[in-house]
Amino acid sequence: MTPVLSGNWSYPTKIWHGPGTMTRLAEACGQAGIARPVLVTDSGLRESGMIIRAMQLFELADLKPVLFSDVQGNPTGANVENGLAAYRAGNCDGVVAVGGGSALDIGKCVAFMRAQTRPIWDFEDVGDWWTRANAEGIAPIVAIPTTAGTGSEVGRAAVVTDQGSREKKIIFHPLMLPKVVISDPELSVGLPPKLTAWTGMDALAHCLEAYCAPGFHPMADGIAVEGVRLIADHLPTAVLDGADIEARSRMLAAASMGAAAFQKGLGAVHSISHPVGALYDTHHGLTNGVVLPYVLLFNRPAIEERMAYLAVALGLPGGDFDAMLEWLLAFRSNLHVPHSLADLGVEEARADELAEKALRDPSTGGNPVPMTVADFRRVILAAIRGDLGLGG
Predict the structure, then answer these.
(1) pTM for this one?
(2) 70-109 residue pLDDT tens
(3) What are the extents of the domains in the chain?
(4) Using H for helix, E for strand and C for coil, what is the string for the chain?
């Protein structure tokens, strides 16, 4: 049977999914109310065929775009400020963000900050800080992901590094959710195998942490379980054959599903990955993939039953926590994800600093086992050393 690759969804926002949906760019801008977009992307995509095509589509529709591509892999507050300056200089009225999570996050922050007078750090995802924002004037966003990882295209938050404190901070507001998402698997065909694997591990971490987060949210749980299944079935194929449109399509869907699911919460995987990325400039998805089994082992007393259900859903022999852990270790090894944080250059001497920053991370509240600085230090040292016994 020929697989169905396309569909239109409205959860949690309007999503046009399928090969060739990029051609609907002007229509998406019209539905979002954008006539003068700033196209936000990263420097690596600036001269790519997809960006050239996007500019042509704008021209054919008589839209007046501004191109901004000063976006780092781990984006910073300075990237937001520069994007906002480009938005204002071009008298823009909306954002089209094209790229991986970094470009999407900066695009969303530019749209959000164009209405604010306070510093961006005043809107960190802490308590009800989002209510400080001036909601009037937040610009509409069209999001076009080119990687299957962060799911930022369906999220209401963005991760930005505060260069002053060298911390990754989550900026949140409900109106940061894009109005329209164009999810075209053809745009991810050129992604190298290594980045395909790393971004896929990010999507897997989102699904697993959302599924393990405490609280009652059966919709998020169901989405997370199906997201894990899609990743298990299709990420290896996408890595081995980057031109496989079905695998690319399913991975884009799984990435969006992970981000939709983590409205329930994340956990210590992200709490650790954020400071590691801020201090060592590591790839976020890769870091998540390294840290994931150590956090699952620490959380085992609280998640053993949930992992058993997931193992059964994946059809794993044994159908228990150990089956899931064995699958995960083999899965990431086959994708050439390193076993330890030491392989990413992380030093034991900074374990205390990382632990303190991890405890302050907003993701920590969603961990199924409450964490202390000592707990984080234990898990971080285990991840640096590659010790699945967690030091005892």
Answers:
(1) 0.94
(2) 998 889 999 999 999 999 999 999 999 999 999 999 999 9
(3) 7-187, 191-385
(4) CCCCCCEEECCCCEEEECCCHHHHHHHHHHHHCCCCEEEECCCCCCCCHHHHHHHHHHHHCCCCCEEECCCCCCCEHHHHHHHHHHHHHCCCCEEEEEECHHHHHHHHHHHHHCCCCCCHHHHECCCCHHHHCCCCCCCCEEEEECCCCCCHHHCCEEEEEECCCCEEEEEECHHHCCCEEEECHHHHCCCCHHHHHHHHHHHHHHHHHHHHCCCCCHHHHHHHHHHHHHHHHHHHHHHHCCCCHHHHHHHHHHHHHHHHHCCCCCCHHHHHHHHHHHHHCCCHHHHHHHHHHHHHHHCHHHHHHHHHHHHHHCCCCCCCHHHHHHHHHHHHHHCCCCCCHHHHCCCHHHHHHHHHHHHHCHHHHHCCCCCCHHHHHHHHHHHHHCCCCCCC
User: What is the architecture, at CATH level 2, of domain 7-187?
Assistant: 3-Layer(aba) Sandwich (3.40)
**Residues 285-332: tens digit of each pLDDT:** 999 999 999 999 999 999 999 999 999 999 999 999 999 999 999 999
CATH topology of domain 191-385: Dehydroquinate synthase-like, alpha domain (1.20.1090)
